[in-house]
Write a structure and sequence with these properties.
Number of strands of chain B: 8
Helix content of chain A: 25-40%
CATH architecture of the largest domain in chain B: 3-Layer(aba) Sandwich
Number of domains of chain A: 2
CATH topology of the largest domain in chain A: Nucleotidyltransferase, domain 5
Structural class of chain B: alpha/beta
Radius of gyration of chain B: 19 Å
Distance between the termini of chain A: 18 Å
Oligomer: heterodimer
Number of strands of chain A: 10
Structural class of chain A: alpha/beta
Bound molecules: iron/sulfur cluster
Helix content of chain B: 40-55%
Strand content of chain B: 5-15%
CATH class of the largest domain in chain A: Alpha Beta
Number of helices of chain B: 13
Largest interface: A-B, 13 and 13 residues
Largest sheet of chain A: 5 strands, mixed
CATH topology of the largest domain in chain B: Rossmann fold
Distance between the termini of chain B: 48 Å
Strand order of the largest sheet of chain B: 2-1-3-4
Strand order of the largest sheet of chain A: 3-2-1-4-5
Amino acid sequence: MLIGLDVGSRAAKAAYYSGDGYEFRIVSSQNWEDLLRDKEGVVVSTGYFRKRVPHDFNVTEITTAIYGVRRFIKRKVDVIIDIGGQDTKVIDIARNDFRMNDKCSAGTGTFLEYIASYFALDVAELAKLHRLAKCAAPINSTCSVFAQSEIVSRLVEGYTKEEVIKGVHHAFAKRIAQMVPKRARSVAVIGGTAKNRGVVEALGKELGVRVFVPEEPQVVNAVGAVEYYLAREGER
Amino acid sequence: MIGITALVPAEVIYSCGEAALDLNNFVPNSKLEPEEKLCAWTAIWRELVLRGKVKIDKLVVVAGGDCYNALVEGEKVELAGKPTHYFTYPFDRDSKVMQEELNALAEFLGGIKEEAFDEVAELKKLALEIHEMRCNGEVSAEKGFLIEVSGSDLMGSLEKYRSAIEEVREEEVDYEYRVALLGIPPIYPDFHAFLQEVGMHVVFDEMPFEFIRHSGKNLKEVARSYANYTFAGHIKHRLRFLESQLRRHRVDAVIHFQQFACHHKLEDRLLRDYLYEKLGYPYMTIEADLPSPTPQQARLRLEAFAERLREVW
Ligand code: SF4
């Protein structure tokens, strides 16, 4: 068996490949050991902690994103946006240019978690509310501190919770869009946040391009680790 | 001891019976958190001098054709009482103007006493030999870089520089890719060693190579040589020079190292357009601010760059 093990800042994901397909498992970062329990095989690690966990090979999450997306999306993608818990990466595949935003939580999964907790919601519920909004409340800030004061102002002005959340998604998307090269014609979004349809819709609007989301956006890098191994193995 | 802030013809300083000390050498390992900071290099050396942590008698600031941050920091040092001279490279590479600059520099330092031109030229030739060994994979980038970057002040003493060169031993460097490091020398002290770890051997350090490339047997020759300092003139000369050097060094990929709040950042687009778009060299830009070991984010991007080199190019 081949095991793609992606241990990031918040979640650890495994992709188990037996030859005829993948199985996945996701746990919180601290419990990554659970992913290897009772499993035998070649471990290809990736993610923030790739060198800290037992592995036979390790590869950066930038390369695995490219391989993983290739497996899930059967068409040409110019740019991959990997929205992680702690950072967001923009991978310009054609030019091999990688940009990262890790200086603060703006534009990362942590920011949306913060917003969800402000409304006493689970982060998975944000998309549902987004869909119910008639318009997007104007929100400019993606700094957690400033965003909160803007949110309060918008609510006071009479915008609904749904409209504010939609506004937050647009601000979030705008922030990420600044990192995406203008030439990009097709974009794939990966990472847990890609499950949020609101964010994906907002990104499509901000970028003015088609945005593809792989079926299992959270395990793309784990799958990519295996795919990378298979491709390199083929060469050996 | 004469503090210098960038490339100042050291052969003139030594010929005036003085010794040169490149203040930048103290920056990468400094823990100091400077106030009033734009670029970390200039802010840190300014603080080190003002606080007396680095002792110099006089300061020579490269004020023209290089860096305006350094110019202002130099003014601060001067106003705090340190004799300071402002050295300017001619933008149009006029060697007569360059020679006047060298004369003014010599005058500031009390005039030429005993010419050291030949000895410095000989030392730089020896340093170029180390450079060749590095190109041939016989010296690590880390060691080669140290010799080349020290070409700016010759380690404060010609004897010291000579023994440092003599101490370099041939070794076998294991690498996958030959890389050129362009722009400002990295403010991360472990940068070359890290690149080596991920299979990238730096065979060409743009600015340090300039430090050992220029010399001459007399003031006139020195002026002619330094007038061609590529960082000081129009960038078209630099691009052309880089093109030939990348070819000569059989470079596989280019890393442009830039510094927060440095005007050279604006050149990234021009370098990328020329070297990547036109000539096709894989190209990556790294930007740094304060000195530290190479941060995780930069490591990740560079490692991914190496992984991509393996398959794309
Ligand atoms: S990095 Fe730029 S701003 Fe800083 S000293 Fe060098 S040239 Fe000046």
